[in-house]
Amino acid sequence: MNWPIDEFYPTRNKVTALCFISLLIPSFILYNLIINIRQGNSSTLIFSTCVIHMYVSIMYAFPKLLTRYLNIFVLILGEEIVSGKGFENLNQKMFFVFSQGLAAASIVEISRWIIGFITEKMSFLFKEVGIEPGVIYSLISTSLVTIFLFIGITRIREKMILREHWGAKRILEIPESI
User: Fold this and answer.
1) Is 175 helix (H, G, I), strand (E, B) or coil?
2) pLDDT in tens, 92-107
3) What is the C-alpha separation between 31 and 25, in angstroms, rounded?
């Protein structure tokens, strides 16, 4: 068995960097806007981060729906990666978008719990060093959400590449007598 692993790495690296950058700044802004400035509750933070994450998922699953000319997935990853992303029908696309949204909501809640724990146990870090909790929250939530989106996108892409790879192998192995 020969796996075409060399085709997976460039896509993985590009998707990871793209998702991390596209989610880091909005999560920092949302945390500061909702928690620090407006003294809002965590459900607003969860909902807003979930919406941003679902937007990134929609840009991947439906590249021409919301951002016809400015889709960052098409600009950075290239048309060939986005056009052959491994979805077979609309149900798979919708499942991908909603499962990514639910995963983002749960990860944001976990990140909020982690930042609460860090704030309680390591308050000296924020006072003496001067690190703002929003920065740590943004790094934690963006890292976790990016990993989840990264897994979702690259696994679908890898499944398609493997299907094409093994399909080509089977065609080569078919005897000519048939």
Assistant:
1) coil
2) 788 878 887 888 888 8
3) 10
User: Is the CA virtual torsion 57, 62, 64, 66 positive or negative?
Assistant: negative
Cα separation, 34 vs 37, in Å, equals 6
Amino acid making up residue 172: L
What are the C-alpha distances in Å from 36 to residues 33, 46, 66, 102, 138?
A: 6, 15, 31, 25, 13
The structure tokens 């003496």 sit at 128
How many domains, the chain? 1
Q: Is 178 inside any structural domain? A: no
Would you say residue 119 lies in a domain?
yes
Six token digits for residue 67: 């951002």
Burial class (CB in 10 A: 0-12, 13-18, 19+), 146: buried
In a domain, 175, yes or no: no
Token look-up 């982690």 returns 114
Per-residue pLDDT, 1 = 37
Closest CA to 134 of 21, 18, 49, 30: 30
Tens digits of per-residue pLDDT, 55-85?
A: 777 777 776 666 555 556 666 656 655 555 5
Give the residue numbers spanning the domain of 25. 5-164
* Residue whose entry in the numeric block shows the structure tokens 């909790």: 133
Helices H, strands E: what count in the chain?
7, 0
- Percent of the chain past pLDDT 90, that is, above it, reads 0
Mean model confidence pLDDT for the chain: 70
